[in-house]
């Protein structure tokens, strides 16, 4: 029985290479999907610049996309419990318009 508990509590050792530890800034995400995967493009859109660049593309399974959604919901709830509600930029009635075609599949953020 003890051996069974040890297996279910197995930990994963995750390595974060130094060149990735700094992260990448993104202020726009576009999401597309097929029948077998979700594609998340993280984009940096600069004011006054007509061209945006995809800074990272992550491809995940539908099951992992659902787990990611739940993890984001949980983390947003914890953040708001600690710091107050996150205000959407269009809560003030303004609208953020950006082109939906960046040369790839259409999506929503």
UniProtKB/TrEMBL annotation:
Pfam families xrefs: DUF3467 (PF11950)
Top-level taxon in the UniProt lineage: Bacteria
Region (Disordered): 82-109
Alphabetized InterPro entries for the sequence: DUF3467
Name the record gives this protein: DUF3467 domain-containing protein
Native species: Salmonirosea aquatica
Lineage: Bacteria, Pseudomonadati, Bacteroidota, Cytophagia, Cytophagales
